Amino acid sequence: MRSRKRQRLWLVSLVFVLLGGAVALVLNAFEENIVFFRSPKDIAAGNTEVGRLIRIGGLVEDGSLKRTAGSSEVNFNITDGAATITVTYKGILPDLFREGQGIVAQGRLQSDGSFRAVEVLAKHDETYMPPEVAEALKKSGYWQDKDQKPVLKGNEK
Amino acid sequence: MITEAGHFSLISAFILSAVQMSLPLYGAHKGELRYMELARTTAIAQFSLVLISFAALINAFVTSDFSVLNVVLNSHSDKPLLYRISGAWGNHEGSLLLWVLILTLFGAMVAIFGRNLPPQLRARTLAIQGMIAFGFIAFMLFTSNPFERVLVPPENGQGLNPLLQDPGLAFHPPFLYFGYVGLSISFSFAVAALIEGKVDAAWARWVRPWTLAAWCGLSIGIGLGSWWAYYELGWGGFWFWDPVENASFIPWLFATALLHSAIVVEKRDALKSWTILLAILAFSMSLLGTFLVRSGVLTSVHAFATDPERGVFILLLLIITIGGSLTLYTIRAPNLQPGGLFRPISREGGLLLNNLFLSVAALTVLLGTLYPLFLDVMDAGKVSVGPPYFNATFGPLMMPVLGAMVVGPLLSWKRGELLSVISALWFVGLAALGATAITLIYSGIEGILPAIGVGAAVWIIIGSLMELAYRAKLFRSSPHDTWRRLMQTPRSVYGMTIAHLGVGVLLAGIIGTTAFKTESVQNMNIGDSVSVSNYTFTLDRVEALKGPNYIAERAVFIIKEGANLIASINAERRRYPVERDMTTEAGIHSTWRGDLYAVIGEGNRATGWTTRLYKNPLTPWIWFGTIIMAIGGMVSLTDRRLRIGAPAKRKGFSSSAPRAVAGAK
After folding, report:
1. By C-alpha distance, which of B182, B209, B184, B86 is closest to B130?
2. Are the CB atoms for B90 and B44 separated by under 8 Å?
3. Based on CB atoms within 10 Å of each CB, which residue in B211, B323, B331, B395 is the most buried?
4. What is the DSSP string of B482-551?
5. What is the pLDDT of residues B13-58, one digit of tens each?
6. DSSP per residue over B352-407, as a string?
7. pLDDT digit string (tens) for A49-95?
8. Contact at CB, B521 and A92, closer than 8 angstroms
9. Angle B467-B472-B475 from CA coordinates, rounded to 5°
């Protein structure tokens, strides 16, 4: 009986060591790797750290999309009605990226106040609005409820 | 008419499931065989009814019956036949029907093949299965009915999301669901065992094949989804730690752990309550996955706008199933007979280590997936948790598992000797170290993690084969004797070797693709050349093209290595007029050494096109590794012991006799 208890003790301590290690890993990874969402308004307020990986979201401003001829770099503005920020991105924009659409961009704020995106996300449904963007737009009073309701469309997977 | 028949069948199946979940349970309690046997009849009948229902839905899609709302929303008469059929499960309602179809299929299989199960256990297992069916059919009938009609049928449908019009994704849901739902059987067996208060080797032997089958399905399903993401999303990657991917990966991790711990229950009668817990957790995570994907709480590449009402319903199902089973577990598990003792250095010890690490790794993935949701609910800001988090937590936690994978099978049960294992594996370790060193020289010191990964892959691939060679006494005995030993080795051992080999191949592919890829993004015009690593990609021409239900712009790239022509690949951008949607089709040239991969973005002759070019070393190994793993599972399934069912336990043979290093498996 004693050895059964010993085995259990041994097991329980192993589990605790393992969980402790995992918690340490998780906390460490969380600190470095969590990506916060900021709206253009938040960034205009000026307390966003330059150089840290963040996500921003808003509507692509009409007429703001510029391609540089002979380069894969694009510039566009995104807005939440209250503030506007210029985004530069080198690469292929998502298939459904277009002006007036809600998008989310992941990247870093530059010291000149522009945003350099490493990833641009637009959802594969033209009436779809990323919820972060919808909320940011609501906060800035830019949100029109009509015809923004997500359509009844199937899910994948 | 056929649609109404399908609807009626589904309602009948619902009523039958109410019978299946109640009377057999009562019968098992009172010992009345008549009521217990009802479980088998209802399980088989229920499957037939759901099958009719499913066939009716497929029929509506194939014949493009636009008086059915679901067909209107998700199909179009221009679609190719394959996608008209797969459109039936490419949407919320239809995929639920597929879910229930597979659920009842498993129930019927237990009823048919479970002849040698004790009647009580069988009745209880099927009753639990009936409860799950009851919940899900209710969910369908009340919130997501696939057979709903429209009063004025439109002339044509709205089409299927073009991303889903793809062979990889047409078969992804059936496999994935086979895995998700297959775990329900392990769950039902676990709950039934808790009700009976008895878990023994025979129980483990009954549960294992079901878990194994589900695991194979889940592996293939995840693999197909990843393959699809690789060539269809055009991001050059195969795994994004997207919440929806995690939703299928977490159950897979628990199922893998369950697969291994059930062996310990079967062979050594130990780890019983842990195994029960894993069976509950594995299916709970499948349900959680369904909830995350279906309720719309997640927004990802996969989850589109959904209905909150449905979310609440699934959440309720989730709480009842998980809460109920875990409550039962806390009440009953302490009463289970304690199992046998073993030393830390033993086969059981190795399997336990594998289990603990796999479960903890699964929990860290779960945490990273749920944390943003949790913050959102608490209104504490919006965050996202991306690949760096998962790489930093999941990666290190997997290393001990990868190490133990090779050592464990060589240890004997109960009390193993590390010394004899070292003598068998020293040169495998040397080969792994050598591979690590060579990679380090090639990639420099910052490549230390990938180099360790390469070493681990070599360790697993050679080590798995070594285990078989050791068992067969290759070169230590006569060729005749080795051959005889190989012939006598049970299929489950071959299954293990093959599956472990698959993990090694998969790991090699993952390391190659993530750590050693070369990527180049630029603007190109016709005739422009770009070099990617040692290859030159030339944009030869861009042409317009008409598909069955799309129009496309196709870019043709000529790839050369030095002066040698390697391949010509086509990258497309497709526009689907009906769905008003675009998709990207990557152009890929695959060899066993890796992929050359090209994507074209927006552009025209005046400005040129944005292109993304990749050299992805060893990517096909990812798909082959997954297939090899699944084949390993299937080979193991054909093991005589599992096929014939439960032979009477031979006393003193499988349980207590100390055996040679490799032990009888």
Report:
1. B184
2. no
3. B211
4. HHHHHHHS-HHHHHHHHHHHHHHHHHHHHHHHHHS-EEEEEEE-TT-EEEETTEEEEEEEEEEEE-SS-E
5. 999 999 999 999 999 998 888 898 899 999 999 999 999 999 999 9
6. HHHHHHHHHHHHHHHHHHHHHHHHHHTTS--EEE-HHHHHHHHHHHHHHHHHHHHH
7. 888 888 888 888 888 888 877 777 888 998 888 888 999 998 888 77
8. yes
9. 100
Q: Which of A69, A93, A155 sits opposite B91 (nearest CB)?
A: A155
Closest residue in chain A to residue B164, using alpha carbons only: A156
Which single residue is written with the structure tokens 């207590």? B656
Q: Does B604 touch chain A (CB under 8 A)?
A: no
Closest-CA residue in chain A for B375? A36
- Distance from the Cα of A111 to chain B's closest Cα (Å) equals 22
- A129: closest chain B residue by CA: B305
The answer to whether the CB atoms of A126 and B385 lie below 8 A apart is no
Q: pTM of the entire structure?
A: 0.89
Measured between beta carbons, the chain B residues lying within 8 angstroms of A118 are none
Residues 528-547 of B with CB under 8 A from A: none
Compute the nearest-CA separation of B583 from chain A (Å): 6
The full set of domain ranges for chain A reads 1-34, 36-139
CB nearest to A30's CB, from B389, B396, B599 = B389
Tokens (6 digits) for B118: 């004790």
Q: Which residue of A has its CA nearest to B96?
A: A157
Q: For the structural domain made of B1-152+159-165, what CATH number should be given?
A: 1.20.120
The nearest CA of chain A is from the CA of B95 a distance in Å of 8
| Cross-chain Cβ contact B304/A123 below 8 Å | yes
Tell if the CB–CB gap between B522 and A35 is shorter than 8 Å: no
Identify the CATH number of the domain defined by range A36-139.
Answer: 2.40.50.140
- How many CB pairs below 8 Å do chains A and B form together? 169
- Chain A CB contacts of B294 below 8 Å: 155
Task: Give yes or no for a contact between B405 and B632, defined as CB atoms under 8 angstroms apart.
Answer: no
For B627-657, the pLDDT digits (tens) are 999 999 999 998 876 655 444 444 333 333 3
- The DSSP line for B592-655 is TTEEEEEEEEEEETTTEEEEEEEEEETHHHHHHHHHHHHHHHHHHHT-HHHHH--PPPPTTTSS
DSSP string, A24-36: HHHHHHHHHHEEE
Which chain A residue lies closest to B244 (C-alpha atoms)? A157
Per-residue pLDDT at B605: 85
Cα–Cα distance measured from residue A133 to residue A147, given in angstroms and rounded to the nearest whole number: 16
Burial class for B454, CB neighbours closer than 10 Å (0-12, 13-18, 19+) = buried
Rounded Cα distance between A154 and B87, Å, is 10
Query: Can you tell me whether residue A135 is helix, strand or coil?
Result: helix
